[in-house]
Amino acid sequence: MELSLGEFTSAGSLDALCSLLNPSVEEDEGDCRGPLAACVGPGDIGPARSHEPVSEMGRDRRNIWDESEVTEGAEFEDTLDLREQPEYEILFKQQVGTEDMFLGMSGKDTSTACCEQMVIRIQLPEIKASEVSLDVKKTFLNLRTPKHKLALHLPYPVDSDNGKAKFVSDTESLEVTLTMTRELDFINFR
């Protein structure tokens, strides 16, 4: 059905169109006025909406993402924090024996896929060990001092409950040793 502008010249027709597109909250549902008025509005098209914020999957529909979808450590990244990032290096360690070095019996090589531990050396000049705050998660390391901040996403998941940290005062550095956790594959069987 085509409508022309001539059909909406009367004030009653425009009022009916207005009430159709913008139904009043105070309007009774059974109140239908005039020949062009309808008892339903555009918001009534489609399935009925519930006014509860929880969806069928059990998560709040008002949230853009679920908490499990947020990258671990994102809560520590602060772009407004003007403390400098310290220099750091990531080293990998593996346990090898003579059968690995001379005979190559275990199939280990020098790649990080064969390593069991990750060592992170962080240079912290003019900092005391008591000023260091360190938090390690499965894939994230967060270090804070009065002068430095380091929010580091780790290259491999680690066992965050069983790590070691040692402050070396001679070199003014912190050495964090973490055991890597990976799915078992033919290299990592022990």
Automatic annotation (TrEMBL):
State the CDD domains in the record: ACD_sHsps_p23-like
Q: Which GO terms describe its cellular component?
A: cytoplasm
One of the protein's GO biological processes: axonemal dynein complex assembly
Any one Gene Ontology MF annotation carried by this entry is:
dynein intermediate chain binding
What InterPro entries has UniProt attached to this entry? DNAAF6, HSP20-like_chaperone, PIH1D1/2/3_CS-like
PIH1D1/2/3 CS-like domain location is 85-179
Q: Pfam families recorded for this chain? A: PIH1_CS
PANTHER family, per this entry? Answer: DYNEIN AXONEMAL ASSEMBLY FACTOR 6, TWISTER
| Record family assignment | Belongs to the PIH1 family.
Specify the protein name: Dynein axonemal assembly factor 6
The primary gene name is dnaaf6
